[in-house]
Amino acid sequence: MADKGDKGKETPKNTEQKNQVTRAMPEQSNDYRVVVFGAGGVGKSSLVLRFIRGTFRETYIPTIEDTYRQVISCNKNICTLQITDTTGSHQFPAMQRLSITKGHAFILVYSVCSKQSLEELRPIWQNIKDLKGPDVVNIPVMLVGNKNDESTELREVTQAEGQAQATAWGISFMETSAKTNHNVTELFQELLNMEKSRIVSLQLDVKKHKKQKKEKKVKESNGAIPENGEGAAGAKEKCQLM
Ligand SMILES: Nc1nc2c(ncn2[C@@H]2O[C@H](COP(=O)(O)OP(=O)(O)OP(=O)(O)O)[C@@H](O)[C@H]2O)c(=O)[nH]1
Ligand SMILES: [Mg+2]
């Protein structure tokens, strides 16, 4: 579900005092906001569309900025995974700062066929570190080498080089292909698994989810507390795609 009208609601007030590190930390809310950054044409939109809709298109349509929402269930609560697909070309610095400030997790995408696209992530990673301050170590960030389906002749960045860059930055790493659907769900799942302040994870176990739904129905028909009541599972919440 693309929600292109959402951007107007954001106000840049929080970025004005960017020297105060605490200001850059987003509030805890029912939304879990993931921001996808990377140079033009590396496959940001393709990864998001593959994940949200299961589709892939060969034609290249540059993005201005799109926000997608996916309803996920967090055991006893429904929450929203909000994915911001940013532009790869000439993003306004204020827009980038706002996305970073509001983001709970980040995906930094380059194309394995372009060393330049990996280099272009450097200033973005620096901005994330500057705005998040020391708390950046607790924020899920994944470096992603996309287009790993491409032939070895076209490759400019080896898997080892990508991994080495991620290690140097202290973040996680994965190679993906939006085209062949390699590691796409795993990317989002891993990212949520890395969240430390609230324990969220994507579970794509449809059978289990159906079983939970069935059990809920039985409980409710027995007069038990509905699912949005206080849970017995304790602090750990597992989230799952609905
Ligand atoms: N071979 C291959 N091509 C891909 C892959 N992902 C994307 N592409 C192609 O790369 C081109 C750019 O993809 P987009 O997803 O639009 O790139 P983007 O990063 O969103 O670009 P901007 O919106 O301009 O920043 C398109 O022609 C896609 O078909 C992939 O995994 N493998
Ligand atoms: Mg795009």
UniProtKB/TrEMBL annotation:
Its main location: membrane. Gene3D superfamilies: P-loop containing nucleotide triphosphate hydrolases. GO terms for cellular component: plasma membrane. SMART domains: RAB, RAS, RHO. GO terms for molecular function: GTP binding; GTPase activity. The keyword Transferase does not apply. Residues 1-25, 210-242 are annotated as: Disordered. Keywords: Cell membrane, GTP-binding, Lipoprotein, Membrane, Methylation, Nucleotide-binding, Prenylation. It comes from Bactrocera dorsalis. The lineage of its organism: Eukaryota, Metazoa, Ecdysozoa, Arthropoda, Hexapoda. It is a lipid-anchor. Residues 1-16 have a biased composition (Basic and acidic residues). Pfam families: Ras (PF00071). Belongs to the small GTPase superfamily. Di-Ras family. It is found in: Cell membrane. This is GTP-binding protein Di-Ras2. GO terms for biological process: signal transduction.
